[in-house]
Amino acid sequence: MQVAEIHEQMGLRREVADDVVVNVEYLEVFEAVEGGGEGEIEDIVGEVEYALPDCFPSTSCRVMIDNAACSATTRVMIDRKHGILLEAVQVLMDLNLSIKKAYISSDGRWFMDVFHVTDLNGNKLTDESILSYIEQTLETAHYGGSKIFQGLTALELTGTDRVGLLSEVFAVLSNFRCNVVESKVWTHNGRIASLIYLKDNESGSPIIDPKKLDIIEATLRNVLKGDNDIRSAKTSVSLAVTHTERRLHQMMFADRDYERKPIIKTCEDDSADVSVQNYLQRDYSVVNIHCKDRINLLFDVVCTFTDMQYVVFHATVDTSGDRASLEFFIKHMDGTPISSEAEKQRVILCLQAAIERRASQGVRLELCTTDRLGLLADVTRTFRENALNVTRAEISTTTDTALNVFYVTDATGNQADPKIIESVRQNIGLSSLKVKELPMIYHQKAERDEPSTGPGGAMLLSLGSLVKRNLYNLGLIKSYS
């Protein structure tokens, strides 16, 4: 492949004089990968780390979206000086896109992310508004914050999970005349974390009276404590400046859910296989993950690395059927690798917890009905009265309509009896509460244009081989053998 072709595929432009210098440095690496050995690649990578000029603006970012190169996926390529991995994945997650493959290279002062994505039904992206949104959001750096819930009060809750807890929480809020506008609830290892966005039911305004907020917090804290959680139950009013899912990961990480034992053991035991090795030649730690594929998997993993203050320098994500294989080259923020066996084990536990928190365990129930004060309290009370445990919930409202999703199991964590589910539906309303299957995102159109990385798990022997493999998968070189 000629330099001009690589330049064209990467979407690099030569109109701006400063950019020419940067792009030539990129292309030197690509040419070396195609024509040189691994030693030469590593030498040039080392040179590039120090040779890139400061003229590349820190907020500058190039995004190219390609629907022609691959038959089954849309390719999103991000070229940037400094890493924005978490933010880029967050943009894709907020659009409910499935990441089939990803190639990430970021070392020193050069950076490249490539994502192969589909919609929830496994189709390529064809909606021009979505494609334009991805480009504009990443290129203008308008990302990273939460959806702004203007005019709402945000509550953060953490505590010990138990059957019926959610119904008690929503009952308290209903008694205080609080209308729940949006909320997300996660449970894991016997712990629960939730962000709840409220407004006063009568005035429709945010709840700002400090005395009322103190009473609400104290009451909810007593509910969360139950009989055996005197110390760890927490409630607080949040400024809601962080992305909601990002904040839930932070809350559960701070709660150390990864160290706890589950009170309710679910029937779906599909723990992620995580291994950590050190690649001492370049001071990397290499993390391999093999698990069931699902929406937002990459986001959950990268959030964990960020919370643990690790930097991802290189990574490859590959999916096949309903399985996913992820490989990350990481370092501490000070440039050192993982230094002890205890630290390795902590990384493994934290990654497994992050993957399990959002796992869709139980029957998915979707509620669509007219919103009203006390709706959530009534619905979740019906769940409790029928011994159904809510493992995850997503609450939202559009104008006057409630659009809620609940994942439920029986009280012991096993699949709920279909007869009980039907009884609950009859109580709440057959037309309002429906049983839904998960979206068919699992590779109905498996990527065939590129070779699979295989079941893998073995650490790559050099940075050169990683760069060569990623560039081969990108179609930028002919071979990496």
UniProtKB/TrEMBL annotation:
Residues 73-148, 154-238, 364-440 form the ACT domain. It comes from the Eukaryota. GO terms for molecular function: amino acid binding. Gene3D superfamilies: 3.30.70.260. Keywords: Repeat. Binds amino acids. This is ACT domain-containing protein ACR. It comes from Buddleja alternifolia.
